[in-house]
Design goal:
The complex is a heterodimer of chains A (957) and B (72). Chain A contains 29 helices and 38 strands. The chains are: A alpha/beta (957), B mainly alpha (72). At the A-B interface, helix 22 of A face helix 1, helix 2 and helix 3 of B.
C-alpha cells in the first residue's frame, strides 16, 4: 500500500465538448476548449511550477510562478489564466522563465521561515517543492528587514507578526507561514460557499482574515476544511498532522455520517488515522467534505467505547463483562426461552442504517430465516419510510431519481422541508455553487434556514405553518393546472391520463387555491403563485426534500404530492430535474434496499409474493413466513401489550431517536431480553440485557448506499478494537441461536444479494473496485448503473397521479399548548449525537437550544440563554432558549442531539397514515421560564447512571 | 393513545381519510389492501375482533374494508 497521490491539474476541468489542439514543449495536446494551458500541460505530463493554482478553484494568476512563453505573443503569460487555442506553440521552460521563476521564489522565501525540518508540512509542502523545482539555491534578500516571520526584530516588537490561531479544534492557522496565495479564501467561496475568509489589507499588509479579523472559531467558518486542503504550506494544517506527522499510506473509503456519502482517502500511519481527505474521484462529493466527515472521527478511539461484551439478568443490575461466547449463549438462551413461552412472533430486530449493506442484509436474514418471523424494521421507519411508499406508488421505485451531479443542470431548485446546509452540507455546497451561477431557488420551510439567505443568494421563501405541506403543495398544483402550466405532452406520453384528469379536477377546486389555503398555511398567495410559475416554467426544475416532508401524519401524502408536481410539469427522466429525497443516515437508502422493512424482501418485493419468497427460501434453505411483521411503533405497542418480548438492535438508539420517550421506555422495560449491538452504551442500552460491542466504519469492509442510490465501498483500515466486525458478530450470534450463515468476507454477502435482487444483479466488489461506485439498478440492462431513473418511461409503467387531500393533523394547538414545536439538526452534530458528541464538534454545539421568536419570548418573560420549560401533551423537559427571528411567531424549534435534553420526551405518538413514520415535526407545546431540569430529566439521569454501572472484573483465582 | 384497540382504530381511520377523496368504490379496496399489506397478523386479528365487538369508532368505509378482509 502507498499514499494515493491525486494529480492536481491546477485549474478545473472544462466541460466544453469542442476540442482544441496545441503544442506544448514540442508535443501535440488536444483538450476541451476553455482548458488552461497549465491544465493542458499537466494532462500531457508536464507540471508547470505553480503556487496559487489548484484544480478545486478557478485560476487566479497571482503567484507569477506558472509563467510560460507562447510563440508569437509578447511577454510571459500565466499558464493558469491563459486558455488554450488551436495552434498555440507553448514553451514551459526557457532561460527567461527560469530566471523569472527563481526571482519570484526568492521573494517568497525571503518572507518565510526556514524551519522545514520541524515544520508540520515537511514532506507535503508545495512551497518546498517549488523551491526545489525552480532550483532556488540562494536568497539574496536575506530574512531580515520587514517580515511576517519573527515576533521580534532585535528588541523591537514586529507589528507585522501574528501569533498562531489555534481556536479551531481541528486545524491551526499559522500566519507566519502564509504566502497569501488566497487558495483558502477561494476554496471557502467557490467550493464551500460560506465566504468566511477574506484577504485583509493590501500589498505587504495582505493577510488571510476569518471575517473581520476574528478567530477561526469566532468567525462564520463552518470548519469544512476546504481551506486546509487547499493550503500549499503549513499555514493551515490539521492538528492531527502536527501531532502525528505525515501519513504513509491511504485507503479510499466512504464517510459514515449523512446520506450524501462522501468518498474519502483515509490517510494512515500504520493503523493510526492521520487525517481524512475527501477524494476527488468521489462522485457524490467531488473532493469536498464537511466538518463531520473530515474531522469528527475521534469517536472511533474514544475512551467510552465498549470493547468487551456484557450481560445482565435485569436492567437494575450492573453490567458484567463476559467472553463473546458467553454473551452469545446468554442471548440465544433468552431468545429461545421467549419464543418457547410467548410464540415465534414475540421477538424481532432492528437493522442499522449506520451499518453496511452486508450487515443489514444479515440482520434481516437472521430475523426472517432464523427467528422465523418478519419483525424487522429500520430507522428509516422514523425518517424516510413515506418516501419509499409515496415514490413506489407514483413512480414505481422507492428512491430518488437523480445523481448529485444532476444539480449542475438544474435551472430551478425547490427545497421542501430540508436544510441541506446543516444536514447535507456537501450537497448544499454543490447547490450553492449553481445558485451563484444563476439557478433560482424556492424554499418551503417554516424556518428561515441558511439556504433561504446566505452570501450571494436569496431564495423565494414560503414560510408555511408546520403541518400544512399538503395544502401548500396542492395549492402549487392548483396554480400549475389552472394557469395552464402543465406539460401535457409529457403527461399524455408517460402517465395515466384518466388518473391525471381526476387529479387535475381535484387540484383545480377553489378550496385548493393559494388564496383559500392561505388561512391554514400562512403562506402569502402571491408568493405561492410566483413559486408555482417559477417551478413550472423553469427548463429544468428539481425538487430536493427532507424530513420536513416525511415526518408528518401526512408524510406519505406529501411525497405523493411532490411526485404529482414533478410529473405534471415534466420534470422527470433527465439530468437537472427529478424528485430527490435527501436521506438522513449514511446507509439508510441501503438498509431499505436490503429488505429491512417488515413487509419487504431485499429489492422492495412484498413478502407475500410467492415467487420471490420461494427464491429466498431456496437460497437460505428455510421456509419463510409470508405475513408482514411488526414495524417499530407496532413493536412498542405490542411490547406494552405483552406479546412482544425480545429485540436485537444493531447500531440504532431507538430510545433517544424515537418519539414519545416515555412510551419507548415503557415498551423497552416490558421486554425480557433487549440485545444492543453498538459502539457505546447508548440510551437504549440503559434498558438492555446484552451488550455486543460494535465496530466503526474504519474497522470493516462493506458497502454503503447513499441518497443517489450510489453503492460505494467501505474499506477496513484498522483491526476492529472490539475484536469483530459487525457482520461477524451477527454471524456468531446467529450460530449460537442455531442458524448457520457461512461467509468468509463481506464480498460473498454482496454476491448473495446480487444473486437474489434484480436491481443489484450486476453489483460485485470487483465492479466497485473497477468503477469506484455504481448506482442501482445495476444489472444486464444497465451494467454500469443508473445515474438518472425513469428516462423515457416510469419503472411502474405509466406514472400514477394520486389525489392528495389536505387533512390537518390531530396534534392541535390550543390554550394550554399554543405554540408549534418543530425539530431538526445542526451542522456539527449527527443524529442522536452518539458519535459527534464524542468529538471536538461539541465546541460548536454542546447543548440543544430552543429557538423562539422575540415576540413569543417577550410575552413569556424569556430572555436569551434562560432556562425554559418545554411541555407538550406527551411530556416536558427543560433547555435554554435562543431568541431568533429565524422562526416565525408561534413556532419554536430545537435539535435532538443531546440525551440530557431529550427533545423526544415532548414529541407525540401521532404518525404518518401509511407508514407510521412519527410526526416529529409538529408538536403543540407551551414554553415557560424555568429554574432547571424537569423531574423527568432528573429521574432519567438517575436511571441512566444506575444502569450504566459496569461491575469490576473479578480477580483471577 | 397507546392502548389498542383505540390506537388501531385511529390508524385505520387515518388510512381511510387518505382514500376517502377517491370515492367509496376505490376507498374500500384501497384501505383493505393497505391493511393487508402493512399490518402484521396480530394487528389484523385485533381489529377484526374489535369489528366483531361492534367496531366502535370505525369510519364506514374502513369498517367495510376490514369486514372484507375477514378470514384473510
Amino acid at each position: 500500500m502507498s499514499l494515493i497521490q491525486e494529480i492536481d491539474f491546477g485549474t478545473p476541468r472544462s466541460k466544453s465538448e469542442t476540442m482544441v489542439t496545441l503544442t506544448i514543449d514540442g508535443n501535440s495536446v488536444t483538450v476541451p476548449e476553455g482548458t488552461s494551458i497549465m491544465r493542458a500541460a499537466m494532462q500531457a505530463g508536464t507540471q508547470i511550477p505553480k503556487l496559487c493554482a489548484t484544480d478545486m478553484v478557478d485560476a487566479f494568476g497571482s503567484c507569477r510562478l506558472c509563467l510560460v512563453e507562447i510563440e508569437g505573443r509578447a511577454g510571459t503569460p500565466a499558464s493558469c489564466t491563459t486558455p488554450v487555442m488551436n495552434g498555440l506553440v507553448v514553451h514551459t521552460q526557457s532561460e527567461r522563465l527560469k530566471r523569472l521563476r527563481k526571482g519570484v521564489m526568492e521573494l517568497y522565501i525571503s518572507d518565510h521561515p526556514l524551519d522545514c525540518l520541524t515544520c508540520a508540512a515537511n514532506g507535503d509542502c508545495e512551497l518546498q517543492d517549488m523551491a526545489g523545482a525552480v532550483g532556488l539555491r540562494d536568497v539574496r534578500y536575506g530574512d531580515q528587514g520587514e517580515n511576517h516571520v519573527f515576533a521580534k526584530s532585535g528588541n523591537e516588537v514586529n507589528a507585522a507578526w501574528m501569533p498562531k490561531d489555534e481556536s479551531n479544534p481541528y486545524f491551526t492557522y499559522d500566519p507566519s507561514k502564509c504566502i497569501v496565495c488566497s487558495r483558502c479564501v477561494r476554496a471557502c467561496e467557490e467550493v464551500q460557499g460560506t465566504f468566511a475568509l477574506t484577504i485583509s489589507g493590501r500589498g505587504f499588509d495582505s493577510r488571510v482574515s476569518p471575517g473581520m479579523g476574528e478567530s477561526f472559531l469566532g468567525s462564520e467558518c463552518v470548519s469544512c476544511g476546504a481551506c486546509v486542503q487547499a493550503c500549499p504550506t503549513a499555514t493551515l494544517t490539521e492538528k492531527s498532522v502536527i501531532e502525528i506527522g505525515q501519513p504513509e499510506h491511504s485507503v479510499v473509503t466512504t464517510c459514515a455520517y449523512c446520506g450524501v456519502g462522501c468518498a474519502f482517502k483515509a490517510e494512515m500511519r500504520g493503523q493510526e488515522v492521520v487525517r481524512m481527505v475527501p477524494y476527488k474521484d468521489g462522485k457524490a462529493n467531488r473532493g469536498h467534505s464537511c466538518v463531520k466527515g473530515r474531522f469528527a472521527w475521534g469517536y472511533t478511539t474514544h475512551k467510552e467505547r465498549i470493547l468487551r461484551p456484557m450481560i445482565r439478568e435485569r436492567i437494575e443490575d450492573s453490567w458484567r463483562e463476559v467472553s463473546w461466547d458467553e454473551a452469545f449463549k446468554f442471548a440465544a438462551a433468552k431468545f429461545a426461552g421467549i419464543q418457547q413461552k410467548y410464540g415465534r412472533d414475540a421477538v424481532g430486530g432492528i437493522t442499522s442504517s449506520r451499518c453496511t449493506n452486508e450487515e443489514t442484509y444479515l440482520v434481516q436474514k437472521l430475523i426472517r430465516a432464523g427467528f422465523g418471523n418478519n419483525n424487522v424494521d429500520t430507522c428509516a421507519r422514523v425518517c424516510h419510510s413515506p418516501t419509499g411508499y409515496g415514490l413506489s406508488q407514483t413512480f414505481g421505485t422507492s428512491a430518488g431519481t437523480q445523481d448529485f451531479d444532476s444539480v449542475e443542470h438544474c435551472d430551478v431548485a425547490m427545497i421542501i422541508g430540508a436544510n441541506p446546509a446543516s444536514a447535507h452540507p456537501v450537497f448544499a455546497s454543490r447547490l450553492k455553487k449553481v445558485l451563484r451561477q444563476g439557478t433560482r431557488l424556492i424554499v418551503i420551510d417554516p424556518r428561515r434556514t441558511e439556504m433561504v439567505e446566505s452570501p450571494h443568494l436569496k431564495a423565494l421563501h414560503l414560510p408555511l405553518l408546520p403541518g400544512t405541506n399538503v395544502a401548500v403543495l396542492t395549492a402549487l398544483a392548483h396554480v400549475i393546472v389552472t394557469e395552464g402550466l402543465v406539460d401535457e405532452t409529457f403527461v399524455r406520453e408517460r402517465c395515466d391520463w384518466s388518473e391525471f384528469e381526476d387529479w387535475a379536477t381535484f387540484v383545480s377546486l377553489a378550496k385548493n387555491s393559494p388564496e383559500a389555503t392561505a388561512i391554514m398555511t400562512g403562506v402569502d398567495p402571491k408568493t405561492l403563485r410566483e413559486a408555482a410559475r417559477l417551478y413550472a416554467a423553469g427548463r429544468n426544475a428539481a425538487i430536493y426534500y427532507g424530513l420536513g416532508v416525511t415526518e408528518h401524519s401526512q408524510g406519505s401524502t406529501t411525497v405523493i404530492a411532490i411526485a404529482n408536481l414533478a410529473m405534471a410539469t415534466g420534470n422527470i427522466g433527465r439530468p437537472g430535474v427529478g424528485v430527490n429525497p435527501l436521506r438522513g443516515q449514511n446507509n439508510v437508502q441501503g438498509s431499505c434496499d436490503m429488505g429491512s422493512f417488515p413487509h419487504e424482501l431485499p429489492g422492495y418485493r412484498h413478502i407475500a409474493i410467492d415467487a420471490v419468497r420461494e427464491q429466498f427460501e431456496a437460497a437460505w434453505n428455510v421456509k419463510l413466513n409470508n405475513e408482514p411483521g411488526l414495524r417499530i411503533p407496532n413493536m412498542f405497542d405490542s411490547a406494552i401489550e405483552g406479546t412482544f418480548k425480545g429485540l436485537y438492535v444493531q447500531g440504532e438508539d431507538i430510545l433517544q431517536s424515537d418519539p414519545n420517550t416515555s412510551h419507548v421506555v415503557a415498551a423497552l422495560s416490558a421486554m425480557e431480553c433487549v440485545i444492543v449491538h453498538d459502539l457505546f452504551l447508548n440510551e437504549t442500552a440503559n434498558y438492555a440485557h446484552v451488550f455486543l460491542p460494535g465496530s466503526t466504519f474504519l474497522e470493516k469492509d462493506g458497502t454503503f448506499t447513499n441518497a443517489e442510490r450510489r453503492i460505494q465501498r467501505v474499506r477496513k483500515v484498522m483491526t476492529p478494537r472490539n475484536g469483530y466486525a459487525d457482520w461477524e458478530v451477527t454471524i456468531l450470534l446467529a450460530k449460537a441461536m442455531g442458524f448457520e450463515m457461512k461467509y468468509n468476507h463481506p464480498s460473498e454477502i454482496m454476491d448473495e444479494i446480487a444473486a437474489l435482487t434484480p436491481t443489484f444483479a450486476g453489483v460485485s466488489y470487483a465492479k466497485l473496485d473497477e468503477l469506484g461506485s455504481v448506482q442501482w439498478p445495476c444489472n444486464e440492462k444497465a451494467p454500469e448503473g443508473t445515474p438518472v431513473m425513469h428516462i423515457g418511461g416510469f419503472v411502474r409503467g405509466k406514472g400514477k397521479f394520486v389525489v392528495t387531500e389536505y387533512i390537518p393533523t390531530d396534534e392541535r394547538t390550543g390554550p394550554r399548548f399554543p405554540l408549534l414545536l418543530t425539530t431538526g439538526r445542526i451542522l456539527s452534530q449527527y443524529n442522536v449525537g452518539a458519535q459527534t458528541r464524542r468529538t471536538e464538534n461539541v465546541v460548536w454545539h454542546d447543548e440543544d437550544r430552543l429557538e423562539i421568536h422575540p415576540h413569543d419570548a417577550e410575552q413569556r418573560g424569556v430572555r436569551d440563554g434562560d432556562w425554559v420549560r418545554l411541555a407538550s401533551r406527551a411530556g416536558e423537559t427543560t433547555l435554554r432558549a435562543l431568541i431568533t427571528d429565524r422562526v416565525a411567531p408561534g413556532v419554536v424549534y430545537t435539535t435532538f442531539h443531546h440525551p440530557d435534553t431529550q427533545a423526544n420526551v415532548i414529541t407525540t405518538d401521532f404518525s404518518d397514515w401509511a407508514t407510521n413514520c412519527p410526526e416529529y415535526k409538529v408538536t403543540a407545546v407551551q414554553v415557560a421560564p424555568s429554574n432547571g431540569p424537569s423531574d423527568w430529566q432528573k429521574a432519567y439521569d438517575a436511571q441512566a447512571r444506575h444502569s450504566r454501572r459496569i461491575a469490576p472484573a473479578e480477580a483471577a483465582e | 393513545m397507546s392502548s389498542s384497540p383505540d390506537r388501531l382504530v385511529y390508524m385505520a381511520n387515518q388510512i381511510g381519510k387518505f382514500f376517502r377523496s377517491q370515492g367509496h368504490d376505490r376507498a374500500v379496496p384501497g384501505v383493505a389492501d393497505h391493511i393487508r399489506k402493512f399490518w402484521d397478523p396480530r394487528m389484523r386479528k385485533q381489529i377484526d375482533a374489535h369489528l366483531d365487538a361492534g367496531g366502535a369508532g370505525l369510519d364506514p368505509d374502513v369498517r367495510e374494508a376490514i369486514a372484507s378482509l375477514k378470514g384473510q
